[in-house]
Amino acid sequence: MKGTKKLxxxxxxxxxxxxxxxxxxxxxxxxxxxxxxxxxxxVAGKFMKEKEHSEVAFTDFEFTPMHTLFLYGYVKKK
Length: 78
Prior knowledge:
The chain crosses the membrane at residues 6-27. This protein is α+β, with helices and mostly antiparallel strands. The protein has one domain. The protein is 65% helix and 19% strand. The longest helix is centred in the middle third of the chain and has 51 residues, at 2-52. 0% of the residues are buried.
């Protein structure tokens, strides 16, 4: 009986550590995505200002399975 209880505590601890690890990796991934999006918005905004003489407001983004970033937004009125 004692051996079984000790085994379940060990298994539970390993599962808990695994869940915490997965959560940390997910948060790091989301943080990296936000940095990439912020940099892309900056570059795209600069491009639109220089080439199209327009101000843009970005409203959303999407990463595709092929690791392509789509930025969604609209041109601000002058």
